[in-house]
Amino acid sequence: MSLTLEEILHLPGLQAMSVRAGARNLQRRVRWPYVAENEGIAEWVMGGELVFVTGINHPRGQANLLSLIEDGEAVGIAGLVILTGGSFIQTIAPPVIARAEQLGLPLIEQPYALKMVVVTHLIGTALVQMSQLRRSRNDILGQLLSGDYPSLAIACQRARHLELMLDEPRRVVALRLVEVEQLFERHGLAEGERLWQAVRQALEDHLQTWCRARPGAVLVQMPGDLQVLLLADAGDLPSSLAALHRQLCMVAGELRLHMGLSRLAADCAGYRQALSEARQALDVAQHLHPADGFCDFSELGVLRLLQGIKDRSLIDDFVAQTLGRLINPGRKQPYVLVDTLDALLKENGNGLKAAQRLGLHRNTINQRIQRIEQLSGQSLDDPLFRMNASVAMLVWRMNGPRQGVTP
């Protein structure tokens, strides 16, 4: 597990280091410190480094520092630390600070009196400790999620010792990147591997940042291609996950990402069942491509059966044949009849209650019922039609409530 720049600056012994630019990006994660000895850094870093420049082995004038800032931001370093006050770099010139601020690159000033060996030792030690803590947390969380533990009581004690507060009810989210094979087919093994690892790391970084901003959220790295979130239940959870999915799709690039959400697990003894539910919901999401990017196990119902239909076109044809004739793309409100049918189904075919739900006069709802039956060739009194329409509406809403279908 990496540390953020903000966490590093708060390490005991590093209080003398000060942020000169890019403070808005102090949540960038640092994977390791790197002392730059060459004129440039572009070919010597891979991204995520906290780069230190001293001026000892190479002159660091304003032009060189500006070049380092440009290169550092281009290759994705976490931040740039400039040692000042000795006989090499006296001060950081204002244009250097201004350019770093413009790019959003965190620029940190370190007094020359603060020895480099002390700084790198403190950062390196903190990174090792964080990595060990991460492995321990992943180990115990993996045991709880898989059910592979010798004693639940001991597992819970270990979790508390590792400062994992798992007593409150949680929901499990399972995430998976797909179309990885196509990535390798398009780019070849070497470039495909590089892109794959870069996306996985970017995904992990984004999830870590998201979890830090959401109370009670925990990221678990499971073996294989599955990532898992433990989340406290909240009223904004569906909208938050939909927003998260949109963000992660941008991170995923050429790959696609799907998510599945479990029902609420009362405590960690229910994590195994919750993970199973999240994976089932994930499989449905991967098959049916919901508009908001995830499926909720508690809302799946018949969708779990539809998941068994391997040919997605059969499902699309069923929805089109059931609802397509009720959609009029040429009208200002093309979905009036579909919305009316939805209200009728929710009210078990009761026209009066459907009219109240939609705020319509009873004559208007009767006219729409006649139109629905005329276009569909079916009667709303037919329980088979209502069942088919309910399933079609469920799939249609999941794929985006205003996604058009054609008969």
TrEMBL record:
Pfam families: GGDEF_2 (PF17853), HTH_30 (PF13556), PucR (PF07905). InterPro entries: CdaR-like_regulators (IPR051448), CdaR_GGDEF (IPR041522), PucR_C-HTH_dom (IPR025736), PucR_C-HTH_sf (IPR042070), PucR_dom (IPR012914). Coiled coil: none annotated. Residues 337-394 form the PucR C-terminal helix-turn-helix domain. Gene3D superfamilies: PucR C-terminal helix-turn-helix domain (1.10.10.2840). It comes from the Bacteria. Residues 7-126 form the Purine catabolism PurC-like domain. Residues 156-284 form the CdaR GGDEF-like domain. Belongs to the CdaR family. This is PucR family transcriptional regulator ligand-binding domain-containing protein.
